[in-house]
Write a structure and sequence with these properties.
This protein is an alpha+beta fold. The protein contains 25 helices and 27 strands. Among the domains are: about 120 residues, 2-Layer Sandwich (Beta-Lactamase); about 150 residues, Alpha-Beta Plaits; about 240 residues, EAL domain (TIM Barrel), CATH 3.20.20.450.
Length: about 750
């Protein structure tokens, strides 16, 4: 039996949705991280640029302040004696890094510390001669053509500009203060003018290929023109701008006006610096996410496993019979109901159990009992192996089966086969117990009523089974409506039996036994009768029921005691008693204390023990020969005579008689039915002669005619019992017969 697998689809869908959700969240997280990082970079770059601007201001202000100070000292002298002033400046220059110093007078004369004296009309000085301080762009120095920058301050007399003092700086010295690097030299700054051209080109800037920043931006693919326009607007309006663009790599840049000339400071940072950090955060987050996904997958897998195990256990508990490992009764009901509604045709429902199965557990042991049930289950499953045939254990030793009905005769053949298979099934190595099945069959109507539960039909098959229980001649029965009244009647018997025994409603009848040779009274059989509410009930109506419910044991003891008492009374009344046989149910034989209990009850004188005979039915020999052998030999050792009742009705008790030594056999009356036919006569003759040769007394029951008497006598039979001599009669009637038969009478 396999477990119905749960579809994987929901789990897979759950995993895919979780993974997509995680990826979405991860990408969103990366985007938020990137935005944050960009914002952080913007702030950092702005601070860097601001610091650069401050440094620039500090450096240029320092230069200009010195020049302002010198200008204030030398203005008057310069106007009066320019040559001396040049000498003064020359001595000051020694203390400074200037390439040269000089001044321009309002009339256009220029005096320099390297001795140049010229007249200039250059616009370079104009602003300073109008009173403004200046720092020049990088220009070529006249004498050597090297790049230089000029700091120029106005010279005042009476608050009126009268000239300009200047200092010529080698460009490299000038640029040293302006070109800054930061962030482990990866980032760099440079000055640009309003038209985008670089004010103080440095190696770093040249290496980046920037001579005009606007042009550099404009040359970028796709967004170049837009970036160039943004920077141009910022330069024109003296505002800041933050850029992110791609050249040889990603770049971030910040543009800020410096407030000196029309200059702006640009700081550029390669994006990889920042993105390396972003990448490491992303990789870390990705790995964390992957670990989380793995954990979730492991968790889902674990939950799935736990669920699968739990449902397997549940499935097992509900659908598997723990004892046989076969289909459980619940599953049988479910599948049977399905089949009955889905498949057309007729069906048979079977209910099967084993007679007195509890004896297997008591005589042998629980484990053997369980193993036997497993064997029975397997046997049934092999038997009902056709399509759509179902078998299950209902409870204890009760099994149920559903079979498609192909024909009643066919079914009967199969049932015969099943019964013989069960009868041949050994319970243990010694083959010490015979399994006798009882089977009830309910044939379902072609269209079972939808509102009739299956259990109703099963109850009917159970009812049919109960009608054959304990009946070893008929092992199966088909349900018919009359069975319900039989069962009701049996139920009423069961209800009344205990009180009936207490009220002594059971009466002992005696049927005489006679010597075949001369008809003498030689014995009797005690046969019970139930005087129930004034009506005499024959044993056939209640004995099988008592055997089923075990009450037979109590009743047999009662009969046995009453017979012992009767023998004693005959003695007390001065009569010579004849041996009386008492029927013993086979249930006693499975009671280990049976022999001792009966011997204690044997309330007669030692000499009279021979007068008590026990009749044991032949079928018991087939059930459990070794047990019977032991019990019988112990009883005989106590002086009790043992007779095998109903001899010849079983399968083959003859072979058993070699093993179990008994005192006599009672041939069943069915033997007489075929009397006169050569076959029966031969059988009778050989049975009688064989029993005699084994030293057993032969009694024939059911003798009704003189012809039978004569024939049986001719066969050498010992004793005869039957209506020909007398019917079973109350004790008083039989006592009278006994009196008449007394030797002295
Ligand atoms: P059984 O021990 O084989 O008893 C013989 C049965 O055959 C008796 O039926 C008897 O009345 C009947 N019988 C005797 N002669 C004739 C005859 O010439 N013709 C016909 N047709 N029948 C005859 P009964 O009394 O109805 O008993 C039936 C069975 O009930 C007995 O069969 C025995 O197995 C059982 N039984 C009776 N009394 C007791 C009892 O006290 N204890 C137990 N365990 N079983 C008993
Ligand atoms: Mg009998
Ligand atoms: Mg009999």
């Amino acid at each position: 039996m396999s477990i119905e697998q749960k579809p994987l689809f929901p789990s897979i869908l759950l995993i895919i949705v979780s993974a997509l959700l995680f990826c979405g969240l991860f990408l969103h997280f990366v985007q938020v991280l990137r935005d944050n990082l960009r914002y952080e970079i913007g702030i950092t770059l702005r601070e860097t640029v601001r610091q650069g601007v401050n440094t620039l201001h500090a450096v240029t202000e320092g230069q200009l302040r010195t020049l302002r100070f010198i200008a204030a000292r030398v203005t008057d002298k310069a106007l009066r004696d320019p040559e001396k002033t040049v000498a003064m400046l020359r001595s000051m220059q020694k203390l400074r890094d200037d390439k040269r110093m000089g001044f321009v007078l309002a009339d256009g004369r220029v005096f320099t510390t390297d001795g140049e004296t010229m007249r200039t009309a250059s616009g370079l000085w104009r602003a300073s001669l109008e009173g403004r301080e200046q720092i020049s762009d990088t220009i070529r120095d006249c004498p050597d053509g090297k790049p230089v920058n000029l700091y120029i301050v106005p010279m005042f007399q009476d608050n009126e500009p009268v000239g300009a003092l200047f200092s010529v700086m080698p460009h490299d010295d000038f640029a040293r203060h302006l070109v800054m690097t930061f962030w482990q030299d990866e980032g760099f700054s440079f000055l640009i003018k309003k038209d985008g051209s670089v004010v103080a080109p440095s190696r770093r800037v040249e290496a980046a290929g920037i001579t005009n920043y606007i042009a550099t931006l404009a040359a970028l693919p796709q967004t170049g023109h837009e970036l160039a326009a943004r920077v141009q607007r910022a330069l024109d309006e003296g505002e800041t701008e933050f850029l992110h663009y791609r050249t040889t790599g990603n770049r971030y840049a910040y543009v800020m006006p410096v407030g000196i000339n029309d200059w702006s400071l640009v700081s550029v940072l390669p994006a990889h610096m920042a993105e390396d950090r972003l990448r490491s955060v992303m990789v870390g987050t990705g790995m964390l996410g992957a670990v989380q996904i793995l954990c979730i997958l492991a968790f889902i897998w674990h939950i799935n496993r736990v669920q699968h195990n739990a449902s397997t256990r549940l499935w097992q508990q509900i659908y598997v019979d723990p004892l046989t490992d076969g289909c459980s009764y619940a599953r049988f009901l479910m599948k049977a109901s399905e089949q009955l509604t889905e498949l057309p045709g007729r069906w048979a429902l079977l209910s099967l159990d084993i007679d007195n199965f509890k004896l297997v557990n008591t005589i042998l042991d629980q484990e053997t009992g369980n193993a036997t049930l497993r064997t029975l289950h397997d046997l049934l499953r092999d038997w009902a192996d056709r399509p759509n045939e179902l078998v299950a254990r209902r409870t204890g030793d009760v099994f149920v089966a559903l079979l498609p009905l192909t024909g009643r005769q066919q079914l009967e053949q199969r049932l015969d086969d099943l019964c013989s298979r069960i009868l041949q099934t050994p319970v243990d190595e010694n083959d010490s117990y015979r399994l006798v099945p009882s089977i009830g069959i309910c044939l379902l109507p072609e269209y079972p009523l939808a509102d009739t539960p299956l259990e109703t039909y099963l109850d009917k098959s159970t009812l049919a089974r109960k009608t054959v229980k304990g009946n070893h001649e008929q092992l199966y029965a088909f349900f018919d409506e009359s069975m319900e009244s039989i069962i009701r009647y049996r139920k009423s018997i069961e209800n009344d039996m205990v009180s009936a025994l207490a009220r002594e409603e059971f009466e002992i009848y005696y049927q005489s036994k006679h010597a075949a040779s001369d008809g003498r009274l030689v014995g009797a059989e005690a046969l019970v009768r139930w005087q129930r509410n004034g009506v005499q009930v024959p044993p056939g109506d209640f004995i099988p029921e008592f055997e089923r419910n075990g009450f037979i044991v109590n009743m047999d003891r009662y009969v046995f005691l009453r017979v012992c008492r009767q023998i004693r009374r005959w003695r007390e009344d001065g009569l010579e008693p004849v041996p009386v046989s008492v029927n013993i149910s086979r249930l006693h034989l499975y009671d280990p204390g049976f022999v001792e209990r009966y011997m204690r009850m044997l309330d007669v004188a030692e000499d009279d023990r021979k007068l008590i005979q026990l009749e044991i039915t032949e079928s018991v020999l087939l059930e459990n020969a070794s047990l019977i052998k032991d019990t019988v030999s112990r009883l005989r050792a106590h002086g009790v005579t043992i007779l095998i009742d109903d001899f010849g009705t079983g399968y083959s008790a003859m072979s058993m008689l070699k093993e179990v030594k008994v005192d006599g056999v009672k041939l069943d009356k069915s033997f007489l039915a075929g009397m006169g036919t050569p076959r029966t006569d031969t059988l009778l003759r050989s049975t009688i002669s064989m029993c005699r040769s084994l030293d057993m007394e032969v009694t024939v029951e059911g003798v009704e005619t003189a012809h039978e008497v004569a024939f049986l006598r001719s066969l050498g039979c010992d004793t005869l019992q039957g209506y020909y001599f007398s019917r079973p009669a109350p004790a008083a009637v039989f006592t009278a017969m006994l009196q008449e038969a007394q030797p002295h009478a």
